[in-house]
Amino acid sequence: MSGLHELTAVQLLEGYRTRAFSPVEVAASVMQRIEERNPQLNAFNLVSNHVNEEAKASEARWLSGMPKGLLDGVPVSIKDIILTRGWPTLRGSKTVDPKGPWNDDAPVTARLREHGALLLGKTTTPEFGWKGVTDSPLTGITRNPWNPAKTPGGSSGGAAAAVAAGMGPLAVGTDGGGSIRIPCSFTGLFGIKASFGRVPAWPLSPFGTVAHVGPITKSTADAALMLNVLAQPDARDWHALPYEPRDYRAGLEDGIRDLRIAYSSNLGYADVDPEVAGIVRSAIGVFTDLGARVEERHPGFENAGPIFQTHWFSGAAALIRTVKDTKPVDRGLLEVAAQGAKIGAAELMDAQMKRAALGLHMNLFHRDYDLLVTPTLAVAAFDVGQETPVKGRWTDWTPFTYPFNLTGQPAASIPCGFTKGGLPVGLQIVGPRFADALVLRAARAFEIVRPVKLPDLARLAP
Questions:
Q1: What is the pTM of this model?
Q2: Which domains, from first to last, does the chain contain?
Q3: How many secondary structure helices (H) and strands (E) does the chain include?
Q4: How far apart are the C-alpha atoms of 372 and 61, rounded to whole Å?
């Protein structure tokens, strides 16, 4: 039973159904994995001491033939940005009082409990999720299971490191500028930022309506299953889309024959590492081989960085105004907040108008193309302890992710190859707004040809 931590959620549920193994055995395997690997990777900043008793309750339900919901007995971790009743949500910050009170579950946490998931604990994040790597004044540096000297990305870096290292098959992440897709690209996992409002969120992120909540998984089938749970309605999110009672697993295997796919190597303006660009370009042929009509075509919008930074930096300024003591706060966050404090109402309104124009532009683009495919990131994972391997801020190496936070479109990252140094590279699949199922279907078609691979941690010292 020592390999149970390697299984996907779908495989675990099948094992419970056939009684090949039990939630108790799975919980023991995953908790042992956390004990072995978390000291090295620093993916969890809180580990539950109730997993075993919850697993026993799940086992009893399965034995009685009455499982509770879609994820009964499946271990899941929660990013430490997301409220979880009874546990502190510290957001990677020393400025948050761990005493709480902590009486509320966020919508996604509540849905996971209702469906019987085993909540493993809270995963690490940069302070308030502000950047694309995972280190913070509170929890220190989180490391990449493929190479602990490298970052797993962020801001959901702890979530991705946990899944890639076998410390639970599912993780909840957030994505305000790429924070699900960035760590999935760096750690070789699948993750999707569904259409804005598809997954209810509460309270609203301090960074506003660019922020999403979603799954980080080992497979597209696991993500579809998890989305079935996370997308269920919650009245506390007034931005939420009308609930669509569908099964995202339906049609997942239908393939992509005759889909019109635009491939953009750099969005027309981004500076991409040549090795990353070459790996993604070589993977594009998979879509053609599967019967899609692929055309190299940039979407035709200008660099969206200034629009995004106006939204993000002003959000950081508003956030910092709520923090009483900024002495232990990440210096980079303070710098960004200081820039944001200089943004006036007219400049912010102008950025909002430009954001609307970008959304309209992509709506029109998708009249001609069902999907847009790009690299997920401009670089592969770089050394820990730095915000960026290039000049500027984290937004300078994530040019492919944040435009689609501005537009609210569904966007997923799926691994498509490895660098010569053995680091994963992600491919991004973007769909029209509300076409979440189509993005999942295209990712699944690609995954059949290029299955997700996980790191061999046996070569790394526990």
A1: 0.97
A2: 4-459 (3.90.1300.10)
A3: 14, 13
A4: 43
CB-side neighbour CA atoms (13 Å) of 295: 12
Nearest residue to 184 (alpha-carbon basis) of 210, 153, 146: 153
Q: Kindly give the pairing relationship between strand 118-123 and strand 135-136.
A: unpaired
Q: What sign for the dihedral angle of Cα 123, 128, 130, 136?
A: negative
Of 404, 35, 380, 6, the closest CA to residue 187 belongs to 380
pLDDT tens sequence across 224-265: 999 999 999 999 999 999 999 999 999 999 999 999 999 999
How much is the mean pLDDT over the chain? 97
Q: Give the residue numbers annotated as catalytic, written as ranges.
A: 79, 155, 179
**For residue 324, what pLDDT band results from cuts at 50, 70 and 90?**
confident
Residues contacting residue 129 through CB under 8 Å, at least 6 positions apart: 79, 81, 91, 92, 154, 155, 156, 174, 176, 179, 205, 207
Query: Would you state the structure tokens that stand for residue 266, as one six-digit string?
Result: 């750099």
Closest by Cα among 430, 398, 429 to 177: 398
Instruction: List, for residues 376-428, the tens digit of each pLDDT value.
Output: 999 999 999 999 999 899 999 999 999 999 999 999 999 999 999 999 999 99
